[in-house]
Design a protein that fits this description.
38% helix; single chain; 7 strands; flat; alpha/beta; 12 helices; Nucleotidyltransferase, domain 5
């Protein structure tokens, strides 16, 4: 570059660069280097001064405006005959202070920790819920109470009533515990946080029975295609329940139970049925082994445990029945 600069008087720039093997653009960049770094911020004449900026911030922090949105502050000041800046400028002033969030006081509801419940056999963990069934007319409902064993998916008790009431739930739970011969300290009952579920009569009953209770929002009912959209009467709903729940307990082969029925798992018959299935599959393999390309056929495994709200680490590490 120095050679080109010294030879520029007798020679023009381009011939000098060509003689020395230097691109002319490189020479011009060397003569006028690009200044890198932050550019000085351009002063905008209409911007707020430092004093005006602080005045707006003090107004927004005033006790009567501390929890109001800038739009509310802006309109209130205009009604009082005062103008400091535009509404959007108020937002920018707050954002510069790291206060670009909801300014209004918000009521926060209680945070309930989801219970982590495990069942390794029948009659250890039950879940119950109340489902609305549509009646014959609009705004007419019947209430289906269902108590489900979480491990076996067996419906241990159900009823249809005209209303949701703690006394009815108390009667259903007590009857189900008696039918299943539940001992004190044996069972945990899980439910959502509805009024009947958290009522004092139900809580006292569970305490008397030695049953632990927990709350969140489980899903306890499976529907089959012919479940009616509406029921013509309370008797219609009860008749359908007398058909649906025996089918669900004794005929429906649940995919989460190794395709066994809830009845077989609940009463300890599933292992024998699984062994019988294994015998059938072994005979099929012996007859035509070429049809089983990957491995010897085995029946689906039975679940060893069932969770309500399994721990996150367990969900990430393996498949669990929920």
């Amino acid at each position: 570059m120095d050679a080109v600069r010294t030879r520029r008087a007798p020679l023009r720039v381009r011939p000098a660069c060509a003689a020395l093997g230097v691109a002319p653009a490189t020479y011009y960049r060397y003569e006028r280097p690009v200044v890198l770094g932050p550019w000085p911020r351009r002063h905008v004449p209409r911007a707020l001064t430092v004093a005006e900026h602080q005045t707006v911030l003090d107004v927004l922090h005033a006790p009567r405006f501390i929890d109001l949105a800038p739009a509310q502050v802006y309109a209130t000041l205009l009604d009082e005959g005062t103008y400091h800046c535009a509404e959007r400028t108020m937002y920018r002033v707050l954002a510069a202070q790291g206060e670009g969030r909801e300014r209004r006081a918000q009521r926060r509801g209680p945070i309930y920790a989801a219970p982590e419940l495990l069942a390794t056999g029948p009659n250890q963990l039950w879940s119950w819920d109340i489902t609305k069934l549509k009646g014959p007319a609009k705004w007419t409902y019947y209430y289906l109470y269902v108590v489900l064993d979480v491990f076996s998916r067996y419906v241990v008790g159900w009823m249809v009533a005209r209303r949701e009431a703690a006394a009815l739930a108390e009667h259903l739970i007590a009857t189900s515990c008696t039918r299943q011969e539940i001992l004190p300290g044996q069972l945990t009952i899980h439910a959502d946080r509805g009024s009947a579920m958290t009522s004092k009569p139900v809580a006292l009953l569970l305490a008397d029975l030695g049953v632990t209770k927990t709350h969140s929002r489980p899903s306890v009912l499976k529907y089959r295609p012919d479940f009616p959209d509406r029921f013509g009467s309370l008797e219609h709903a009860r008749v359908h329940g007398n058909d649906f729940f025996p089918w669900y307990n004794t005929e429906h082969r649940h995919s989460g139970l190794g395709l066994h029925t809830p009845h077989d798992v609940h009463f300890g018959l599933a292992e024998a049925r699984r062994a019988a299935r294994a015998t059938v599959l072994a005979a099929a393999y012996a007859a035509r082994p070429e049809r089983f390309v990957r491995h010897h056929p085995v029946p689906a495994a039975l679940p060893a445990a069932a969770w309500i709200n399994p721990p996150k680490l367990l969900v990430a590490s393996q498949d669990v029945v929920q």
